[in-house]
Every structure is written in C-alpha cells, then in structure tokens.
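User: two proteins, same treatment. go.

Assistant:
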Amino acid sequence: MNMKYSYKARTNTGELQIGNVEADTREAATNVLLGNGLFLLSLAEVKDERVFDRITVLFKRVKMSDLMVFTRQFATLLESQVPLSDSLTNLYHQTKSGVLKEAIAKIATDIESGHSLSQAMENQTPIFSEFFINMIRSAEVTGRLAEVLNFLADYLENQAVLVSKIKNALFYPIFVIALFFVIIIIMVTFVLPQITPIFSEANIQVPFFTRVMIGSGEFMKSWWWAVTIVMGMFLVAVVDYFNTNEGRVVRDEMILKVPVVGSLFRKVYLARFAESAKVLIKGGLTIPQAIEISARTMGNAVYQELLHRAADQVRKGRLLSQALAEMPEFPPLVGQLVSVGESTGRLEALLDKVNLFYTREVNDMVDNLVNLIQPALMVLIGVMVALLFASILMPLYNLSQSFA
C-alpha cells in the first residue's frame, strides 16, 4: 500500500518546491523525487488524520468570505504603496475573524524575524491553501504581489459563488426528504401504536405495509438507544474511513458515478483546474509545477491523481494536450483548446476559455437542476405520503366495514 510523504526540495534553478508524493517506501519516494531532478531538503511521512485531529482543525478554519475580504484588502493596501508590515497591522485591526486575526499576527511576527510572506503563510496552512501560498511565492519572485492578490481574491470569489450555487441547489431537496423521514418516525413511533390495539380487538387483518411500520415503531421505542449508538458508531467509522487515502479515492469515485451529480462535479473540477492552472502559469510557474499545484486544489482524489500523472508526462517531454487526450475524464474539448494554446504560445488565454466554458456549463446545469428538482420532489413526496396514509387509512376502512 502506498504511503504519502510531504517533501521540501529545490529545482535545478534553485526554486523551492513543496508538495506530497506517494510511494511504497521512504526510499522509493526519495528515488521518485531525485528522478524528477529535485534536490531533496526534507521528507516526512504524512499520517492519516483521525477524528480528534479533524475536530481540532475545524476550530482553525476561516470562512471563504473572510479570506476573500482579507485578500482583497491586502491587495488594495499594497497597490496604495503601503509597506508590508503596515498593511498587516491594518488588516489585523480590520479583520473580524478571531482565527484569521491570530494568523495575521503570527505572519507579521514571522516577517519581522526575516521570513518571506509565503514562508510566513506556509506556517498557517490550515488557513492558507497550498495553491494560495504558491501563488504568493511566485509573486515574490516576479514582483507582482498586489496583482496576484487581486487574482486570488477573484478566484476565491468565483469559488464561493460556485459552491454557494451547488449548496443551494442541493439544500432544498435534502431538507424536505429529511423532514419527511422525521414525520415517518413520529407516525410509526407515536401514532400507529395508539390505534394498533383497536385492530387487534376487532380481529382486523392489517395490510403488510402497515405491519412493517408498526413493527418498526415498536422496535424503535424499545431499542432507540441501541439504534442511536450503532448509527453513531457507523457514521464515525464511515467518516473516518472516507478521510483515509483509500477512503478518499473510493468516496470521490462514487461521487463521479452518481447520475447528474457526477456530471456536475466533473464540470466543476474541469473549471477549477483550468482557472488555477491559468493563474499559476501567468504567475511565472512552469507548466508541470502549475499542474501539480492545480491538482491539490481539485478536492477530488481521482482528478488529483490524473493531474499528477499529466505533470510527470510533461516533465518527460510530452505536451500537456497529449497527456490530457489519453485521459477519458478530460473531454476532447479541453485537450483541443490546450493544444491550440501550446501551438500559439497563448496557453493561459486558452485555459481561461476552458474555465469560462465549463463555468457557464455548471451555472446552466445548476439552474436546470433547481427547476427540475421541485416538481420531481413533489411527485416523490406525493407517492411517499400516499403510502404513509394508506398504511393508516386502509386498516381504518377495514374496521369500518366490519361494523357495517
């Protein structure tokens, strides 16, 4: 089984590179990095996070909206020629988020100690992503820090809008279905047990579906505590598994196979790849570096692995378009536009077109889902309500017939 190792290394040109590599052993990971022409500085095994670790990280998270405002304000201050230390002081006083305020104070302290901005942000990795840090690092080299911060603010804003649209499209049906199941639990636990003795005394044959609901209610009343414990343990085990390396791959593969939803997320990942790669290449990173860092912004282990493979092939001399053309997860349109960008020397511009195309596709798909979900949900809920009331009304009808 492959293990994940985090590394720090320098390229032949002396540029610092930070990332993760998977290999069977530490020696194999070292060989992979050396084979890619890197001078290894450090290599450490990455342990899978467990429940306690993830709970701790939850308290260190910053809302995307807070991070976006911080980035935009930071860019504005630097564009106004405000010194870096004074900019951080202003941001510290303006920031409402306690976690982000603490991170800004630590960044300012690290910079006073001689660290660069990217190195200081790297010490606050629960808040600043690898993509964010690498963009800052590239801006420090090119001297375009304010411009890159504006890029990052736009990027975060686009991601926030996209995530919000998807959440809003899925929230309503999930809420309605969950509410309906709550009603079912109340019915089978409190309502049906009240009228069951009447059927028994009148020797009325209860329909099969009603018997199932009555039995479920009796079981829940007697063993609710055991069901709660088992369900809690099951959920913890599932969440814990899905946060392992193997579990993440299984979970992400399942998401991509879900009808409609899988297609939506594929488009989201394609748009995310194109936008992040465009910004990174424009920021001065090489194509393999841009692909590697873009892979870590995907949020999907399947696409992350595919992009790692594409970066390896580009390092070996192949064109990015050729590498993507061999992967069915990337539609022909992506490979064709990337090929045009490579041949004309305008790769960033063509990646931007890929991003715009799939962003529009995602927006249209989300809008269509919102329009289709409501009528489909009404039909589904109607059928379930009919079954629920039939399980109660049919025995009552039989009871009335017995007295006729």
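Protein 2:
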Amino acid sequence: MSQELQFHPIANDWPLIEGFEFADLCDSIQVNGLRVPIVIYDGMILDGRNRYRACIETGAATNFEDFHGTEEEAEALVDDLNRHRRHLTTGLLASVAARKATRKQGGDQKSEDIKLQICSSIPTRAETAKQMGVSERTVNHAAAVIKADVPEITKAMEAGTLAVSLAAAVVALPQEQQEEVQALASEPEKMREVARDLVHNHRAQGTGENEWYTPEEYVDTVREFLGGIDLDPASSEVAQKVVQAGRFFTIEDNGLEQDWAGKVWLNPPYAQPAISHFITKAVDEFNAGNVDEAVVLTHNYTDTAWFHNAATNCSAICFTRGRIGFVSPEGKKAAPTQGQAFFYFGERVEQFRDAFSKTGFVVVAA
C-alpha cells in the first residue's frame, strides 16, 4: 500500500505484541503468508494490527475485509479476539480497562505512542473494571502507571512481572530509583525483588512519620465538625478503620495525581518533599473551588515555606494544647518533639473555633 493505515482507537485499548512474540509472528507470515484477513472499521484497522505490522516488516501481501456493525459490536469483537489470543494477566486487564475509560471520556488514542490523559470519572472506571473483571482500585493503579509513561514498567505490569499496585508504587519513586527498576526489564525476578525493596525503603525513609496515624479522638472531632469526610487523599486501608472516608487514596494511588472534591481530611506524609506537595495540592484544590471544606493536620513547623503557604491560604488554625501521640501501624504511640496544627479551609470559622477549642487555641488567618 502507498500509505500505512491507522489503528482504530478501539483496537488501541489493547497493547501491541513485541519481542519474541512479534518475531515469531513475522516468521510465520514470511513462511505461510497472511492467513487471517486484517479487519477494517471506519477506514482504520480494528483487528490485525500485529499482523499488519508483520506484513510491513516482511514485505508480505496484505488482505483486508470490512467490519459492518455498531461501535459496541466492534468493541466486543476486539475484546473477544484478544481474550482468546493472549495470556491474560491482571495487569493487562487493568491496563486495558484504564485505556477504555480514557477513550470513553474522549481521550485521543489514534497514535499508539500517545501519553494518555487519565480521566477522573469514577463511574467510567467502575464500568470498565467490571467489563475486564478486575477491581476499580486496580484500574486506578494501572491508570497511574500508564500516565507516568514509563514503558518498561507498563510492560512489566502487563506481563505480570510487577503486581499492579507495586508498579504504581514504582512510578511514584524518585526518577533515579525508577531507572534502577527499568534497567532490570530483562531480568523479571530481579526486577520484582528490587522494586519491592525500593518501594519498602521509600515508604520507611526519613523519620518514619509517614506511617503514623491520627488518634481516633481527633479524627472524630474532624468528622463531627465537617459532617462526614468525603475524601482522605493521603491514607491507607489501616487508617480507614478510623477515618471512614467516602473515598481515600493510598500511596499507590498517588493522591497528588487525583482529583479532590467535597469535604477533605488530610494528614499528609510529613517527610519532604511530600508534605510540600500535598499542602500545595490542598491549597490549589480549595482555591479552585473543587474542595468545599478541608481540615489539614501537620506539625507546627512555622518556619517552613509549606507552613506559610497553608497559613496564608486557610481560614483558621488550631494550635494544639500538648502534642498528639500519633499511632504506628503496630499500635505504638509516638512521642513527637513539637506540637501540631489543624488548618481549616472554609467559611465556617466560628463553628471551627467551637469544635476545636477543646483541642487547642484557634487563630483566624488574616
């Protein structure tokens, strides 16, 4: 053909085959020719992207046939054929579900090397997760990996070398640590081992304060004041036994990359630079009108830039009377060397003062 054909967006929900699998397909087509026609829909390749690539690679003759049906029928055909042809890992299914959600929200996937713009629609993610037989949380993790645009990690996730949650945690690591994992793409077992070690060490780095939870009595005060917590964007499964938020994001979800909305409770990771990033995110989401109200708990490091950022954008601050004994995952109480501060973002300053007067003294921000 004088001009190469484009791949249909529906077909691009599924990744192309590579490596020895593609080499084997090229060898087969070179010896036997193209036995199964390439299917065309709306002038683009719907099924047979890999066969088409192999024909181009080997110079073999191509053979086409048109698909006549609805878009829903076209999607069902592609999914059915790929389910039968591929080794289906959880990572692959979650990746496909994430791409489907993007496409159904209007994401342009006509170019196979596009950087996906991950949609924030919970219903769409839920729908595609169910369609692929995986959990919505797993799809959220896969979406974060795809958005990070690190091909070696995405391929490892889809191949099953890295669990989806582990892959999501890897792309949240500093660049040099991500590259350390990427470099082991040809050694799957070692790649998985190094990824686990780096993620574990990253979570435990610094003072360890990132893994301390707020005692129940303080969370109860926040929940009662807000009338319920819609979102906890820096949390864990363990913390939710106390927080009981409508939605929450774990370190694998990377709350900095997610949309925030409603009434927010935030006890951010206290190590730098994470705390600065979470404070900036909270301020930006509130000022943009996405967050109705927010209560943010930090140490009272009044000399830091992030503390001043929060203080100059919030409505009021409660400086605690005494120090909060944060709780470790094992149930041990911390003994911090400084007091804490609750920042309030919202219009109900007097109600905040009334609710938190038992916790400390409240000052209204200028």
